[in-house]
C-alpha cells in the first residue's frame, strides 16, 4: 500500500508494523488503507467490517482519543503502538462508552477474534494498559 502523508506524526515503520499484524491475522482481510493511518478490514468469522486508526502514543490520553474520534468518526479500533504503549483510564472509559477498542501490539490480535472486540481485555490482557498507564 502506498505511504501517504499524515498529520498525526505516525511513522511509516509503525504503519507497516500494523499492516503486517493485520495481514498475518487469520480472521482478517485488509481491504483498504487511506489517510495513511486508517485501515479498513473485514473479519472472516464475524463477516463484518472494522475501521482501525493507527496512532503513536506512549500513553493515549482522553484528549488524544477524542481527537481521533472527531477526525475519524467511523473508528472501531484505535491502535496505539507497540506492547509498551498504554492509555489512561479516562481514555479507556470513553472508548468503552462508544464501543471502540483501544489496543497495542500485544492485545490487538486477541480483540480481532472477539465478536464484541471493544470489550477485549483490560483485565484479561494486562498489556492493554502498557507501561505508560496513568492513575
Fold-level CATH name = Trna Endonuclease, Chain: A, domain 1
Query: Biggest sheet, strands in spatial order?
Result: 1-2-3-5-7
**Shape assignment:** globular
Distance between the termini: 38 Å
Q: Using the 3D structure, state the CATH architecture.
A: 3-Layer(aba) Sandwich
Per DSSP, the total helix count is: 4
How many beta-strand segments?
Answer: 7
| Poorly predicted ranges | 123-135
Largest sheet: 5 strands, mixed
Q: Would you tell me the overall average pLDDT?
A: 88
Could you name the CATH class?
Alpha Beta
Whole-number count of domains: 1
Alpha-beta classification: alpha/beta
**Cα-based radius of gyration, to the nearest Å:** 13 Å
Written description of the protein model:
- Strand 1 (28-34) and strand 2 form a beta hairpin.
- Helix 2 (62-71) packs parallel to helix 3 (89-97).
- 27% of the residues lie in helices and 22% in strands.
- The strands form 2 sheets. A 5-stranded mixed sheet has the order 1-2-3-5-7, sandwiched between helices. A two-stranded parallel sheet has the order 4-6.
- The longest helix is centred in the N-terminal third of the chain and has 13 residues, at 12-24.
- The model is unreliable at 123-135 (pLDDT under 50).
- It has one domain (12-109): Trna Endonuclease, Chain: A, domain 1 (3-Layer(aba) Sandwich), CATH 3.40.1350.10.
- It has 4 helices and 7 strands; from the N terminus they run H-E-E-E-E-H-E-E-H-E-H.
- With 135 residues, it is α/β, with parallel strands linked by helices.
Amino acid at each position: 500500500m502506498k505511504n501517504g502523508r499524515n498529520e498525526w506524526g505516525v511513522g511509516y515503520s509503525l504503519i507497516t508494523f500494523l499492516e503486517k499484524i493485520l495481514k498475518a491475522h487469520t480472521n482478517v482481510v485488509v481491504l483498504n488503507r487511506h489517510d495513511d493511518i486508517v485501515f479498513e478490514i473485514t473479519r472472516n468469522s464475524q463477516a463484518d467490517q472494522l475501521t482501525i486508526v493507527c496512532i503513536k502514543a506512549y500513553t493515549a490520553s482522553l484528549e488524544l482519543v477524542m481527537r481521533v474520534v472527531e477526525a475519524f468518526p467511523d473508528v472501531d479500533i484505535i491502535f496505539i503502538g507497540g506492547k509498551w504503549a498504554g492509555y489512561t483510564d479516562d481514555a479507556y472509559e470513553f472508548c468503552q462508552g462508544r464501543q471502540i477498542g483501544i489496543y497495542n501490539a500485544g492485545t490487538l490480535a486477541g480483540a480481532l477474534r472477539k465478536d464484541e472486540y471493544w470489550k477485549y481485555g483490560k483485565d484479561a490482557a494486562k498489556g492493554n494498559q502498557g507501561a505508560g498507564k496513568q492513575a
